[in-house]
Amino acid sequence: MSIVALVVAVIGLILAVASFAQNANNIFFIDSSTGAQSSSDGMNDDDKIWVLAIGHLASSTEYIDEISGQIMGFDVDIANAVCRIAGKNCRWSVDVFTRCWDSELGEAQRGGVGLYSGFYDACTGWINKYERSRTFRFSDAFSTPDEAAFFVKPGNPLAFDYRDISNKKIGFIDGFAFDEFCVARQDIQGVPILPENSMHYATRDDLLAGIENEEVDAGFDNVLVWSKVDKVDVIPDFRAQCGIAGRSMMMRQDNTLWQWWNPAFAKLRNSTEYHRICGDLLFKHGHIPGPNPEDVCFDYE
């Protein structure tokens, strides 16, 4: 009887090992905050789950709907359409945007741990700019380039003049494309900004508070966003181009997402669906502050 039991146990062990080996290549995902990576070993691209990250959550381009809890916005609509056209299985991940790219005061700009470590395949809606393109690969842009501007407390009580920013404190947001390096490329007096005059904030709300409290003479960021904030005045007659191209998918150099994204987006851009997605910026997402269709869409009328 004991011999029979031993034989049964051995057979069970063999079957268990065989079952484990058969399922060793299964895709599995663990929340990116744990530091674990997704696995797709042994599977071709047609079976791969492509993980796309968003993290800005600051406008109608990317946000979480408070009622449904769904990830929504222009960037999401574009990516969902591109994935469908390409026949790819895409999934969304929400993470802190500095895990895609970080730029802190007094430190070199650098790629974020989320993208470096493969928590996701690409970060969505990132402006292709010089510093980032030296580290990461970008897809073709799916929007026109955004412009930056200086903005101040209403009435400009600190008499900020963009033509000479010598000894002026300027506020920026960590990780954003509109940074002190972009200001340094502008044809104005007082650049590059001295380190002690460059102030970094974690969020747009923090930067707004810094302006209201007169911690900085002016802020510098996306004009499409701040032109709709009634608590600041956008300085006229000055606009800066900080990027090489518009909103794009940003990925590691060894990631192949761009190979199917670019031709699929080209098909989308030449379709009526692209214009419908652009129109949805106001019709579907207009309750969230953000750009107008003509501000971000190619050839939109």
- Gross geometry: globular
Query: How many strands appear in the DSSP assignment?
Result: 15
Mean pLDDT: 84
Topology as a string of helices (H) and strands (E): HEEEHEEEHEHEEEHEHEHEEEHHH
Count helical runs: 10
The largest pleated sheet is described as: 6 strands, mixed
Structural class: alpha/beta
- Rg over alpha carbons: 24 Å
Low-confidence stretches: 1-43
Euclidean distance between termini CA atoms: 84 Å
Strand content: 15-25%
Q: What fraction, in percent, of the residue positions are helical?
A: 25-40%
Description:
By secondary structure, the protein is of the alpha/beta class. It has helices spanning 2-22, 74-86, 113-116, 130-133, 180-184, 204-212, 223-226, 257-269, 272-283, 293-296; strands at 49-54, 63-64, 71-72, 89-94, 101-102, 110-111, 122-127, 137-138, 147-152, 170-173, 198-201, 218-222, 233-234, 240-241, 247-251. The strands form four sheets. Strands 9, 10, 11, 12, 13 and 14 form a six-stranded mixed β-sheet that branches. It has a five-stranded mixed β-sheet with strand order 4-1-7-15-8, covered by helices on one side. Strands 2-3 form a two-stranded antiparallel sheet. The N and C termini lie far apart (84 Å). Mean pLDDT is 84; it is low at 1-43.
Entry summary:
Helices cover 30% and strands 19% of the residues.
Task: Walk me through the topology.
Blueprint: H1 2-22, E1 49-54, E2 63-64, E3 71-72, H2 74-86, E4 89-94, E5 101-102, E6 110-111, H3 113-116, E7 122-127, H4 130-133, E8 137-138, E9 147-152, E10 170-173, H5 180-184, E11 198-201, H6 204-212, E12 218-222, H7 223-226, E13 233-234, E14 240-241, E15 247-251, H8 257-269, H9 272-283, H10 293-296
Parallel strand pairs: 1-4, 1-7, 10-11, 10-12
Antiparallel strand pairs: 2-3, 5-6, 7-15, 8-15, 9-12, 9-13, 9-14
Helix pairs in contact: 2-8, 2-9
